[in-house]
């Protein structure tokens, strides 16, 4: 992890505000190069945006109920989404057509991600399992099932041959597919999100006890705790920024918070007019950030950066 100077000032400001007219946002994520972002919403849609220009590019409609999560493939050609309808959908980005629907889960889909080659989609479900789906096969069955966990699986991420699940049973489940190992770390509070750090050396865990914890991936040692936000009743997520110098996370009281990774100090709090659940995500290559609160998506960036357009999208 990086070293840092506490005297170094960190500032961001809102560059764009974008609105979803028909429902509340449920998730937001950058694509792999940070040129676009994806949102999922309560109106059953997945939306592709260019947040730098403040433009909605495409909507993907096909879930039977709320779309809860969406992620882009590494080649930017496909989108995977999961919904409250217990379905994982693979979309073609260009045509907005659903390419595959996988329906084996018995609970809502809380997390999805692609492997590095975009050949497999991983899902995390409220049915206390995870699953791996072959994007190139005609089969509608999972090629791997993970679990059964002790409670709802809340997140799924992949780093090379490692698959990481957060779970409401208070554990983080890591599967090393290359070596055939399963590693389980007990956190002690319901886990709503587990993410690898940008350098892949640590695991950042968000829990429903007003705390975010950073662990060493190899030995499981607790490295730091981050507090100051509210996370008791909803899935409040956090992640490291592109160089692991910052932790960015939401809160249930309308705030987006930034902590210094090493010192655990809060260096910036962004208040949202929607005093409600806020979640955010960090750009993969620079200090730009997205936040969602109710039906509003915001792009945050350095005061020195000029946005491509000042227009808001409604």
UniProtKB/TrEMBL annotation:
SUPFAM superfamilies (UniProt xref): WD40 repeat-like
Compartments where located: Cytoplasm
Main location: cytoplasm
Record Gene3D superfamilies: YVTN repeat-like/Quinoprotein amine dehydrogenase
Pfam families xref list: WD40
GO cellular component, one term: cytoplasm
UniProt keyword list: Cytoplasm, Repeat, WD repeat
WD repeat residues: 18-59, 60-101, 102-143
Record-linked PANTHER family: WD REPEAT DOMAIN-CONTAINING PROTEIN 83, WD40 REPEAT PROTEIN
Family: Belongs to the WD repeat MORG1 family.
Name used for this protein in its record: WD repeat domain-containing protein 83
Organism: Notodromas monacha
